[in-house]
Amino acid sequence: MKLEKITQPSNPPPRRSYNDACGMAHALDLIGERWAMLVMRELMLGPKRFGDLRADLPGISANVLTQRLEGLEAAGLLTRRKLPPPASIQVYELTPWGYESEPIFQALGRWAARSPAHDPRLPLSSVSLILSFRTMFDPSRAAGFAARIGLRLGEETFQITIGEGRIEASRDAIEGADVVFTGTAPAIAAAVYGGQPLDALETQGMLSIAGERSVAERFVTLFPLPAKVELAE
Hints:
The chain is 36% helix and 18% strand. The chain has helices at residues 23-31, 36-42, 50-56, 62-74, 96-99, 102-112, 126-136, 185-192, 198-203, 213-219, and strands at residues 78-82, 90-94, 147-153, 156-163, 166-171, 179-183, 207-211. The longest helix has 13 residues, at 62-74. The chain is globular and about 55 Å long.
């Protein structure tokens, strides 16, 4: 019987590989480094500049961000390109394969939200808030509800469209929205996930709402957090 030589993959394994054939282990080879998944999260709604990524991930250093971008690019999960004039700036964006990872982020988010230690009052970025809406949306609560929601978060605007039990959320213009929330991501999260009354947030100057009040009040009820797991004593 003739023995055939088993060839090794042409690409070397990641520097800190688990050397394990399990798909989950290889996933950790690709995105398991600290900050890697959060960098991908911030690119999930479209390309960003290096400075924007640093601003949205205030705990990361420039050196570590550079390393993570290079690692994700080498893995084929993101790419860099230069915008045409007059912008002429370099941006980073996910590849089509990188975008395919959003269901993984959603599953992890729903799973981890059941932890008794999860605190929705902690800081979060604008992109994180919008992605949480795509993750936590409950179609049953949106029965018979159709609306366009605008969010003005700092210099960014986002549009959320709800109808027929479905949600679409993206970085977009907000003209023509039925209601527009203006504030910070934590302030809106306080209403949606923390149960803070809209009136109270407005009185405190944390949030302003323009448009149909009934739409705003219905919108913040559409994203229930899962029940906390009961840990054994």
